[in-house]
Write the structure tokens for this entry.
Amino acid sequence: MTAVAARLRHFLSIADLSPAELTALLDDATALKRDPVPSDAPLRGRALAMIFEKPSLRTRLSFDVAMRDLGGHSSYLSPQEVGLGRRESVSDVARVVSRYVDVVVLRTFAHETLEEFAKYSSVPVINGLSDLTHPCQGLADIFTIRERTGSLREVVAAYIGDGNNVAHSFMLGAAKTGMTLRVATPAGFEPLPRYRELAEVAARSTGARITFGQDPVAAVRDADVVYTDVWTSMGQEQEYERRRRAFQGFQVNRDLLANAKPSAIVLHDLPAHRGEEITDDVIDGPQSAVFDQAENRLHAQKAVLRWIV
């Protein structure tokens, strides 16, 4: 690890951000949504490498468009081309790629791969998704809620379903912005203790309130935001039947949503397994902010790129 790399600013988790930095990114995302192609082209001449071990629609396309709109360009490297840790060591790929480009987005199965890559990279690394966190999604989630509701400190949000990487990032974002968040998961599918502790520590400094339980109706009651994600994520396909049984009663449908405020918005990070964790009439209904949320990945990631490069 070089001395230069030791001073780098990476974006591997929302835990990496102070509350002030998170607010500044939200403010910049707002500005970039109003002015999506800044005349000063802040990333003119800069190059982004996207190294993906998992398939993607939103992450790949939004970063590609973001770099173009900011004046830079991007290159996509597929799993077959790179073979992280198989065809070539993670450390060697990091040291080579970071001599060619100015920033890397890495979408990987194991968070440890991301941390190792960042350790040996001489340019900033952005987490495009790992098994533990999805900070770009979390940033877009908080941005969407602020855009719809105004003051985040007045918001009560419910997260219903699997305590996964998306839940971890949403918890951290809620904790660092002063929100109230109720997390409801089946027994055995709670967020990891490490991320609960990180969220609880952050909440103490912002006045946020994060609670955990197993009752989706209690979590949703009078909420301003109802958020869910797939019950079976990429890489967990062999667990499908077990998870489908465990998550019965955690579907976000009209009956569950009726317990939230009439003005509540519904979020889902997509792709959705329609008819499992969420019903068509909810995701396509008048309370859905899901496709605004998907669009906001673009604006939030522009803010991250402008901040980190």
Q: What stands out?
A: DSSP finds 14 helices and nine strands in the chain. The longest strand covers residues 47-52.
